Predict the structure.
Amino acid sequence: MRRLFARRAPRLVAFAAAPLSAIALAAALIDPSTLARVTSRALSPRVKEPEVPSFVVSREPFVRRVTAEGNLRAVKATPLSPPRGTSGPLKIDWTVPDGSEVKKGDVVVRFAPTDFEKQLEDARSDRDKAARKSEKEKALVESTLRERDRSAELARVELDQIRDFQSKDPEIFSKNQILEAAIDEELSAARTEHAARAKSIEKSLSGHKLDLIGIEKKKAELSMSRAEEGLASLEIHAPHDGIIVFETDWRGIMYQVGDTVWAGQTIANAPLLDEMEAEVFVLEADAGGLEVGKRGNLTLEAHPDAQYPALVKRVDTLAKQRIPDSPSQYFGVTLVLPETHPKLMKPGARVRATLVLDETTTVAVPRQCVFERNGQSVVYRWQGAYFEPAVVTLGRVSPGRVAIEAGVNEGDRLALHDPTTRAL
């Protein structure tokens, strides 16, 4: 067996070497430039056209759109707040369900009367106390003034007696007696004057005390009046026909029974349903070209089959977070709706908007045609027998499409898949 293989081995070697000799001979006969072109084509993916899906380049309308989500809201709405005449906090005792349809004058919110009832009771007690203090002060003043009158009368009587029986005759009375009589007269006159002055002062002080008590009484009566007004205004009524939409507090929680609110604080709105607008949010990365006047379409989440035209009315100056602790930021966008359908469009309804940011005619290709090679964007262009890579300059991008600013021409056929991977 070994001998047989040894005899055949030279023949096998000669046979294997024959192709290498042919290649070497061909290489010697072909021009060097031709050899380089053949070698380059051999290294490029030689793929017949039908084997790779392709796309023929042409100028076409290029529309860049962006989608956004948000909610409907009324252009005009009447805020509903506790009455401004009330002081102190109010506790919500009852409300209609959020989104309820109401008629003008219907009660939509009712507050607990406990605080006003206590305020009224305390005010009545203060008023009665002030009335008792006033009566007591008046009685005390009358008694004091009578006492002062008696003292003044006694002083006058004493003064008259002294003057009538004063020891003045030096032949009868001694010098000391005459001096004592004069001193008694002066003292009695001072007492009479003091009694009259004390009566006047006491009367004035009593008047001031009664004035202070009167102020306390008026203050109590004013508090009573406020409490009575508060009890009479413990209900919020619908200002017109429509629906009621409750606001949320600083925690994002809707106001409900048991919550404490203050006068002037908006707790609900009564929107007018004849004119609606939408507030939607566009991701910051997709907001290039977003500006007032851009058109779009709006779809109600509850009725996805119908579309409504919309125009951008306002774009927020700064992008903000919609979700706490989320790095994504959005621009708030207000959309005007030329048409409003009150039966379908309700405030707070979720909507999806498609906004047109750019609309031009340019060379655009499917995104599948563009590949990245060594940090450059390339396409594979058909050269009659094979696909050859070509560097391109990209323009604006839309879902599924990308504009080409340079690198391809109309009529070029581009591969929709990487032909190099198909060749392998």
Remarks:
- The chain has five helices and 23 strands.
- Residues 175-232 form the longest helix (58 residues).
- Helices lie at 2-29, 32-43, 114-164, 175-232, 419-423.
- The first strand starts at residue 54 and ends at 56.
